[in-house]
Amino acid sequence: MSAPAVPPASAREGAPSSRPTPGEPALVPGGLRLALVTRREGPLAPFRAALESHGFQVDVHRSGWDLLRTAPGRGWSLVVLDGLQTEVLAERGAVPAAVITELPPAAFAAATAGLAVLCALPPAPGAAEAEALLARLRAAGGLDPRIEAAQVRLDAMSRRHHPHCVVCWDRHPFGLKVDYRVTGEHRVAGVFDCGKSYEGYENVLHGGVVSSLLDGAMASCMLARGIEAYTVELRLRFRRPALIGEPAIIRGEWLRNEGPLHLLQASLEQGGLARASARAKFFEGTPLEPSQPMPGGPGVRPLLSQARKRLS
């Protein structure tokens, strides 16, 4: 069945506020995010792994209350309710996404003022069920295949070329741990909590950290295109202090290229205000690779000089 339109959360009775609660990450529009509400993480592991292989970030919740508490700060493409839909309905909450549940579609839609149900969740879903679900989600217009493909490229390239990146590796002991997600053609976005450990001046995020976040967003844009490249020029503008304790959204965008030289831009926002912005040029290749022509090497410098002029 095609999923009916889901009314905005703010338009439904009992809907949570669209503003993230204190301590919750800010909403990143777009991207491939899925909320899985279950107490059966083991049996659903193959289903989850199949979705993650398509570039989905899966947020697992063990109760309907936990799902609704975090809903305002998330941008889910889909919510899977595994036997816990009664908790969601009991809380009179509104989930701003298409939903899978064991309840009959008509009954669930009636109980939630028209919330969409794409299909039923089988007892032990695996890779085949995940593929069928994604096909229905694409048919309903809830999944852009271009974003899906770009996210898969970004994840694969990050694992291959940046496995221990201080900006985006989620297990780095001192890292920033930003999960950049593809949000549109040539664009990515991520959220950073701006914790106290990254302070420069009192209650202000350190400028070097801001620089790393912006550079990481632009590098992720390149990886999402399937191209390994590194920064050869970075220009920053600090517009306002980035505050400690307030989640920031970092956005990156690929603009154009001239041969192996690519022009990108990025911004860091808090509370709807731009705190910093950057423009950078990335050069295709791998640093420290013996066969890699370096920007300052013989024969390369004049070519880059011409490319820089055309990209300016």
TrEMBL record:
Pfam families: 4HBT (PF03061). GO terms for cellular component: cytoplasm; membrane. It comes from the Bacteria. Residues 203-253 form the Thioesterase domain. It is found in: Cell projection, Ruffle membrane; Cytoplasm; Membrane. Its EC number is 3.1.2.2. Transmembrane segments: none annotated. Keywords: Apoptosis, Cell membrane, Cell projection, Cytoplasm, Fatty acid metabolism, Hydrolase, Lipid metabolism, Membrane, Transit peptide. Belongs to the THEM4/THEM5 thioesterase family. This is Acyl-coenzyme A thioesterase THEM4. It comes from Mesoterricola sediminis.
